[in-house]
Amino acid sequence: MKIKIFDTVELSNAYIINEVVERLSTTCKVLGLATGSTFLEVYSKLISLNKEKRICFKDIKTFNLDEYIDIPHDHSQRYRNFMNKYLFFDINIMQDHIFFPITENQFNYEQYDDTIKEYQGIDLQLLGIGHNGHIGFNEPGTPFDSKTHKASLTEETRRMNQRFFNHLDEVPKHAVTMGIQTIMDAKEIIIFAYGLAKAPAIKGMIEDEITENLPASILQRHPNVTVVLDKEAASLLTKKY
Ligand code: GLP
Fold first, then answer.
1. Relative to the CA of 117, which of 19, 30, 64, 108 has its CA 20 to 30 Å away?
2. Atom 1 in ligand 1: residue holding the nearest Cα
3. Per-residue model confidence (pLDDT) at position 109
4. pTM higher than 0.90 for the full model?
5. Long-range contacts of 10-15 (CB under 8 A, 24+ apart)
């Protein structure tokens, strides 16, 4: 794992954006995307760079990590709507180059891994981490060899995500997510996390044993992963990086 720790979120995001721009201009044709507050600055900067014609999405395919089940189609927290608002509507991506594990009309997540393979796999996967170490919606206990599947959200995750909804009852109980194996099959991963609340999960992911109880710990076995942290998220690490 390559670990990059920055004093501020702004510096971390600047590093990530440089990496993404470099990949999109060279090797990256298939980009894995994630949702969550961590990504907003990066997506906003990608929009600006696209408007300035410094990056182009015309030939890029995107695969999102996950999507809620049982959420109204027009709900702002439906991940497709989130991505439309914060990225897709403002960049020159082709609509038929955007992939989600479930869409309004199709419940075809079992084919998602095959579809990714048809496009020769994900070149770069952007990834966040949940407070309990989940990646995508792979909660603790998810088998490391899982493919894209229907997942139940833990109460903890539902409570964490409650801030985006009016009430806990509104937070979906299920989602479809790329599996851990699906994520591990990406050729390169950049995972980023900011803030003190993520520090325990980050410590477990980088320095503790690899265990299905902390899904992100499997990333220790990925050959090309960069972890980008601000100093708060890195605050429980005991080694020098
Ligand atoms: C959700 C997503 C994850 C994301 C996590 C963290 O649970 N399924 O992919 O990493 O939220 O979100 P945030 O960036 O808001 O902390």
1. 19
2. 36
3. 85
4. yes
5. 10/41, 11/230, 12/192, 12/194, 12/228, 12/229, 12/230, 13/41, 13/42, 13/45, 15/228
Angle between helices 79-86 and 40-51 (to 10 degrees): 40
Compute the average pLDDT of residues 6-17.
97
Q: Which amino acid is at 53?
A: K
CA distance 108 to 185: 20
Is the shortest distance between the CB of 34 and ligand 1 below 6 Å?
A: yes
Copy the structure tokens of residue 192: 């980023």
Mean pLDDT of all residues in the chain? 95
Is the Cβ atom of 197 under 6 angstroms away from ligand 1? no
Locate tokens 């972890």: which residue?
227
Q: Which atom of ligand 1 is nearest to the CA of 177?
A: 8
Which residues belong to the active site?
66, 132, 134, 139
